[in-house]
Specification:
The protein has about 325 residues and is mostly helical. It is built from 12 helices and 3 strands. Pfam families: 7tm_4.
């Protein structure tokens, strides 16, 4: 996908600094990141396994949850192993093509994750506002098509990032002052006009994330109207509880992601250490929280996990 025989234009490797300003603390910070990564991997694999083996969970909400878990695994694994190697072993070099591959996976699966959250909001909207028609609206084929559309959207929107960067010359400075390769961080090392790349990046982010946020917001406004109209207090409480967990997941992804994205372009007064820490956490906190939140809030998954630990039926 990205080849070049010109070593002066394409460096053999980049240098990832980790967390500039916290070099003396990185060794210990890595233990926290490692623990969070282990929770993310174990939690998401557990969710995928439970949904796979329990045929009663082969419903739209759980299929979307499986997609979210797969996206979380890819998103966290694309950065954390290399990040831990930087913090613990000072393995700061990353090969040029490996860096661009990391850019691709980070941005593609961030888009996929956003799209899956949008699909889950639509599922909750149909389930709460049109419960009698839920199974007829969201059939397995519709769920598969929606998941495939979200995946293709992420791949197609992000591929030009790597293609355009691969065709541009780089300056002699090959240092990336953060823990992983991100589109804007790599773009700042280019010795050419990057206005087209920046414009495309803004267009891609605001068209994808903007569309998803609008759909999610409208869905939850409609859900809120329906829930407030329920006569049963217990039913209202249950619906609010289901939606609250989803909203927590949404906020955990969008707030730090948008902060990181906008800081790269406009937040030059934001301390670098704050920016880099949030950039690291936004790729790790949602993958860690998602299986915990949905595992706790979803009775079937919670019972399956308890059954596995206890060795007996709940």
């Amino acid at each position: 996908m990205m080849t070049s025989g010109n070593n002066s234009s394409h460096p053999r490797y980049f240098i990832l600094l980790g967390i500039p300003g916290l070099e003396n603390c990185q060794f210990w910070i890595a233990f926290l990141f490692c623990a969070m990564y282990i929770v993310a991997v174990v939690g998401n694999i557990t969710v995928i396994h439970i949904i796979r083996i329990d045929h009663s969970l082969h419903e739209p909400m759980y299929l979307f949850l499986t997609m979210l878990a797969v996206s979380d695994l890819v998103l966290s694994s694309s950065t954390q192993p290399k990040m831990l190697a930087i913090f613990w072993f000072h393995a700061q070099e990353i090969e040029y093509h490996a860096c661009l591959i990391q850019v691709f996976f980070i941005h593609a699966f961030s888009s996929v994750e956003s799209g899956v959250l949008m699909a889950m909001a639509l599922d909750r909207y149909v389930a709460i506002c049109f419960p009698l028609h839920h199974s007829s609206f969201l059939t397995p084929s519709v769920v598969v098509k929606l998941g495939a559309t979200v995946m293709l959207r992420g791949l197609l929107w992000v591929s030009p990032f790597c293609f355009m960067i691969s065709r541009m010359p780089f300056c002699s400075n090959h240092i990336i002052p953060q823990s992983y390769c991100e589109h804007m961080a790599v773009l700042k090392l280019v010795c050419a006009d990057t206005s087209v790349n920046c414009t495309y990046g803004l267009l891609a982010v605001f068209s994808v994330v903007g569309f998803d946020i609008i759909v999610i917001s409208v869905s939850y406004v409609m859900i809120l109207r329906t829930v407030l109209g329920l006569s049963s207090g217990e039913a209202r409480l249950k619906a609010f509880g289901t939606c609250a967990s989803h909203i927590c997941v949404i906020l955990a992804l969008y707030i730090p992601a948008l902060f990181t994205f906008l800081t790269h372009r406009f937040g030059h007064q934001v301390p670098r250490v704050v920016h880099i820490m949030l950039a690291n956490l936004y790729l790790l906190v949602p993958p860690m929280l998602n299986p915990i939140i949905y595992g706790v809030k979803t009775k079937q998954i919670r019972e399956r996990v308890l059954q596995g630990f206890c060795g007996t039926a709940p």
